[in-house]
Amino acid sequence: MAKFGEGDPRWIVEHRDDGHNVNGWHWTEKDRTKWAKTFFENQLCKEYRQEEAGGWTYVVKVKSVKSCTGDAVVRNRKGKKVCGYDFQLKLEWEGKVLSSDLEGDNTDIGALKGTLEIPEFADDEENFEVLVKCKSITDDVQQKIRNLVDHTVTEGIRSVLGTFHEALLDCDAR
C-alpha cells in the first residue's frame, strides 16, 4: 500500500475531498423507467387462448397497461451492474368465448372485462401479488373466462415479470 501523498500514476482515480465521481469510476446510475414502461406494454399485452371440446375457445386479451407508476434504475459500481425497481401496475383485460358454427365462422358468445393489479412489483420481492378484478359473473361461460384469467393469464404475467430483472440489466448493454 502506498504512503499517504505518494500517488501511483497508474491509479485510475485519486482521492477527492469533494467526493467527485471521476470518470464515473465509483458509480453510475441510469434511469430506465421509460424503458421499463415500454417493456411492460410490449410484453404483458398479449392474448391467451384455451380450447375445449365442442368448438369452444376461451380468449382473454390483456389490452393495455392502464397505469404504471414507479421507477427503475441500473447502477454500475466499480464494474458490477445492479438494478433496482419498484412498480405498481394495473392492466386492462377483456375475455370472450368463441364458438365455431357449422360454416366455420366464429360467433362471440360471452364477454367479461376487468383489471389485473400488481400492487408491488419490486427487485426485493420474489412473490408478488396479482389481483384479478371484474364485474360480477352471471353465468358459467363468464366463470370459465374468469378461471382462465385466474390461472393461465396470471401465470403468463408472472412468467413475463420473472424475466424483467435480467432484461433490465441487459437493456443497459444495448
From TrEMBL:
BP GO annotations: protein folding
One Gene Ontology term of the molecular function aspect: protein-folding chaperone binding
SMART domains membership: Aha1_N
This protein's GO CC annotations: cytosol
Domain Activator of Hsp90 ATPase AHSA1-like N-terminal: 29-174
InterPro entries attached to this UniProt entry: Aha1, AHSA1-like_N
Top-level taxon of the source organism: Eukaryota
UniProt similarity note: Belongs to the AHA1 family.
Protein name in the entry: Activator of Hsp90 ATPase AHSA1-like N-terminal domain-containing protein
Species name: Palpitomonas bilix
